[in-house]
Amino acid sequence: MRPLVGKIIVLVLVFIAIGLGVAIYLKYSKTTSGDKAPVIKYDKFNPPVTPNASNNNLTADQKIIFNAPGQGASEAQLKTFSELVNKLAVGGDKITIKDCTASPEVLRTKFGSTITVENKGSTDIHFGVGSDRVLVKAGESTKVKIDFKQGPGVYGYGCDQQNLQRSIGVLLVIPAK
Fold it and tell me: Domains of the chain by range and CATH?
């Protein structure tokens, strides 16, 4: 029964990532504002995320970016999320994950680029969006091509830790110029 709960949590996070990715891409593809993230509009595919005890040790900013706005979110909540993701985004090509904590928290990268995902934890992890996932063994690094089927957008990624119902990091994927 417990493995089913974990799969449901991962599925919810994937739907959130897809919904946000589509929403950002649709909005961003109409702008010419450089590398800035657009304000997100709610997408009907975003299921709500129920905050849980895993949020207790998070900062106020982390609570916002790791618990993406869901159904019923106000325009103000969507704008706050969008602006914060853009503000916290660090350009680069590497994500380090250790014990379900990612650094940087928000990585800005271009669609089509290749990033390195380093697993400094003691257990293997899966990284990716939807069916575009790769295994990153404990203590190793893996190259990941950012060419998700959903295109540019905002993607939250999670962790296989039981009862963790939020993202541990965010990818801000901008169109290649």
Answer: 2-174 (2.60.40.420)
